[in-house]
């Protein structure tokens, strides 16, 4: 851990998203010196914008790769375990992106889906679509749900001024978001590794 709130992009990049969620959720029962509360308040401000954009670009890439590309491809090849793995990766990346759009940290996986319901931007829509994908036995319905969620995300990213691409493939929007990062060094790191 750190003995101070992160104050550089490098420090922010070292912190797992889930750990930030743990540190900023729940009640503080005792903090007589106020040190934890001060630390926590700094974390509650959210990621620095460049780091948030970097992560959003990466989540777009992962959603496209796992959901829009690999899920249907796995189905066509009768690789059903691979399809389920792709759906799980899509769910994780999509959930993370919705939290990032709302300037929140994605919680631990067992609370990740339920927590979407309280996100004001795309929360309920993503909650319902991801639940449908998880419970449907129809591959066609799952592909439709994936594409619907990707479309909602793309429209929101356009509304936020983060992309001007007309593509319906999220992979094309990641680099658009990446180009809006002001820190040149961070902007030049490929988004695949996030």
Element-level helix/strand string: HHHHHHHHHH
Helical segment count: 10
The total domain count is 2
Strand tally: 0
- CATH architectural grouping of the largest domain: Up-down Bundle
The dominant shape is globular
Please compute the radius of gyration using only Cα atoms: 17 Å
As residue ranges, the low-confidence spans are none
* Proportion of residues in extended strands: under 5%
Distance between the termini: 20 Å
The first-level CATH class name of the largest domain: Mainly Alpha
Rounded mean pLDDT score: 95
CATH topology of the largest domain: Four Helix Bundle (Hemerythrin (Met), subunit A)
Biggest sheet, in brief?
none
Content-based structural category: mainly alpha
How is this structure best summarized?
The chain has two domains: 9-44, no CATH class; 49-193, Four Helix Bundle (Hemerythrin (Met), subunit A) (Up-down Bundle), CATH 1.20.120. The chain has helices at 9-14, 17-24, 35-44, 49-76, 80-101, 109-115, 123-135, 139-159, 174-178, 184-187.
